[in-house]
Amino acid sequence: MNIYTTITEVRQAVADARATGRGPIGFVPTMGALHAGHGRLVETAAARCGFVVVSVFVNPTQFGPGEDFAAYPRTLVEDAARCEAAGAAAIFAPSVAEIYPQPGLAQVHIQALGETLCGASRPGHFTGVCTVVGKLFNIVGPDQAFFGAKDFQQAAIIRRMAADLNFPVEIVVCPTVREPDGLAMSSRNRYLTPPQRAAAPALFRSLQAAATAIRERRPAANDVRAAIQAQLADELPEGDVDYIELVDPHDLRNVQTTDRPVLIALAVRLGKARLIDNIVVD
Ligand code: AMP
Question: Residues with catalytic annotation?
Fold first, then answer.
């Protein structure tokens, strides 16, 4: 497995792989600090594609002022070992200057889907995500790109961006990988103190309880939201709820009733971490 830092090198590696019949080309964009959730994405990609590129790039344009861009963990040596073990053929780990040699005047902004949930509390975040993923798609030129359902809104937005802008890439969304106690794996879990880490599985427990209530009783969305809020106040009192929303999984619009498939998504600040999780109830 090779690690490339320049656009020219990674383009050449992908071109060589195609020329020698090693496609299809799979692509897993990440910000590094990789865990088993990322590993599963790479394994899935490697099972479907002959040549898998993983990008490791902490993208400054998707962080807001006061967010954790500087503090975000950078662990390229460990990341490379995980990628190789999972079947990646190459890592693309560019510098910020390689990706943004000048201030970008062109950006990809996605309406509606990008303005709710995390988009409401992190203005500009999804414009940064779409712009960098669009650039990476143009650099790597993958046939298939792999995203995690943990970032459900992000995956929905990228799928829509690829459709609207005719990127010739199939978007594959893989299930959320969890710790044994249910906490969704995240590079930001390492910000948690031991007591916070011990309490954090309350997030997924509250989503599971809500899913059970929906399957059994079809309560109104407001009642589901109130029940999650109450459970978190009880089990995770240190958590500061950013949002708890019930939305249509296709267009991410708020729903009032739970008699059709619904995505329950939440974001909670816990100490230095902002944790997100979600569950789809069919
Ligand atoms: P990140 O490095 O956090 O930007 O994530 C890179 C990719 O890994 C995104 O597509 C995420 O949705 C995905 N990912 C992160 N955590 C998980 C997880 N626990 N399970 C599955 N995919 C994940």
Answer: 38
> 8 - beta bridge partners?
none
Give 104-111's long-range contacts (Cβ < 8 A, gap of 24+): 104/61, 104/131, 106/131, 107/131, 108/134, 108/161, 108/165, 110/157, 110/160, 110/161, 110/164
DSSP 184: B
Place of tokens 């594609």: 49
In the predicted model, what is the mean pLDDT of residues 231-241? 98
Summarised one tens digit per residue, pLDDT across range 28-53 is 999 999 999 999 999 999 999 999 99
Distance (Å) from CA 219 to ligand 1 centroid = 31
C-alpha 98 – ligand 1 centre gap (Å): 23
For ligand 1, pick from 38, 173, 276, 279 the residue to mutate: most ligand atoms within 8 Å of CB.
Answer: 38
- What CA–CA distance (Å, rounded) separates 32 from 79? 6
Counting from 1 in the atom list of ligand 1, the atom nearest the Cα of 175 is: 21
- From the alpha carbon of 177, which atom of ligand 1 is closest? 20
The pLDDT of residue 101: 98
Closest residue by Cα to atom 12, ligand 1, is 148
Atom index in ligand 1 nearest the CA of residue 176 equals 20
Helix (H, G, I), strand (E, B) or coil at 276: strand
Mean residue pLDDT of the chain comes to 98
Q: Within a 13 Å sphere around the CA of 263, how many CA atoms are in the beta-carbon half?
A: 20
Return the SS3 of 167.
coil
Please list every protein residue whose CB sits less than 6 Å from any atom of ligand 1.
Answer: 30-31, 37-38, 41, 147-148, 150-151, 174, 176-177, 184-187
CB atoms within 10 A of CB 159: 18
